[in-house]
Design brief:
By secondary structure, the protein is of the alpha/beta class. The chain is built from twelve helices and nine strands. Strand 1 and strand 2 form a beta hairpin. GO terms for molecular function: oxidoreductase activity, acting on NAD(P)H, oxygen as acceptor.
């Protein structure tokens, strides 16, 4: 479909394109709403649910930005490649905001690892050859990634991603299988999100060689449909430890994600930004162990 190169006209980039995976979710849609006021911009919303994409496009109609959609399963390399090529054919890709993911209440540990970890690898790899110095990649991780004590972080397993993502997948599953079946999803979530943070740092020199920057953002407890699934446990329970004792709003994290695909933070790369109301700063090791 595409030569895997950015489209240019007369040496000048065309309309800027910003891709948002999970674009119909609370954070993804809030980010799209924030970005929709930008002129000369196409926002490509990607999601697995075609009906939800149609509703999101209708809700954002009439704004300065043009809204396009693509159905995409981020665990499928073919789907993600198609999404990236679709973006390239719409104009100059200036940003990718990868919000798609699942929580412990949304599937078993195998699904969580596949979507959160392997999905991130697929998305990040798909855009490498389509980037230049006017490009920002933002991966959404989670404060849960900070819940794993250093002794439990399997960086040796993470590094297998450079050999084969399937090896990574099975190594992370093996780590979850050390726990009883009813605890594996609770392990898979912080493990997969810790990997997202690690992978963002790991891949930043590759993007940096093209003058692009990549960061991860770790939200805490937010009032989204996914967050409400964890209201009485997980993210909900962690509000009790917060310095600001409330759920964050989708727009609060959406505003941050939108800012990160501007030119302003171009020197910010290979790091994680924690937006959690102060939870992680208040937790002790005993608290972290009880929450994993």
């Amino acid at each position: 479909m595409s030569s895997r190169k950015q489209i240019v006209t007369g040496g000048v980039h065309m309309t800027n394109v910003i891709v948002i995976t999970g674009g119909t979710g609370g954070m993804g849609f809030a980010t799209a709403r924030k970005l929709s006021s930008r002129e000369n911009t196409v926002i490509l919303l990607a999601d697995l649910n075609g009906a939800a994409l149609a509703n999101a496009k209708t809700a954002l109609a009439g704004q300065a930005a043009t809204i396009e959609t693509v159905v995409c399963d981020i665990t499928s390399e073919a789907d993600v490649t198609y999404m990236a090529d679709t973006a390239a054919n719409l104009g100059h890709i200036s940003g990718v905001i990868h919000t798609a993911g699942v929580s412990p209440s949304m599937g078993d540990y195998r699904k969580i690892i596949a979507i959160n970890a392997l999905g991130t690898v697929n998305v990040d790899q798909a855009f490498i050859d389509l980037t230049d110095h006017n490009f920002s990649l933002v991966n959404v991780a989670s404060m849960a990634g900070y819940m794993l004590p250093k002794m439990m972080i399997p960086k040796h397993a993470y590094k297998t991603v450079d050999r084969d993502s399937e090896i990574l997948y099975h190594r992370l599953l093996q780590r979850c299988q050390l726990l009883p079946k009813n605890r594996r999803a609770q392990m898979a979530y912080p493990l997969s999100k810790n990997f997202v943070m690690w992978y963002t740092e790991h891949i930043s020199p590759v993007y940096g060689s093209r003058g692009a920057h990549v960061v991860s953002v770790s939200p805490g407890s937010f009032d989204t449909s996914m967050g409400r699934l964890e209201k009485d446990k997980g993210a909900g329970a962690m509000v009790n430890y917060a310095a600001i004792k409330r759920f964050g709003t989708p727009q609060e994290v959406g505003d941050l994600l939108a800012y990160l695909v501007t030119d302003a933070p171009a020197y910010l790369t290979g790091t994680d930004i924690l937006i959690d109301g102060g939870v992680v700063g208040q937790l002790r090791l005993r608290d972290m162990l009880s929450l994993t």
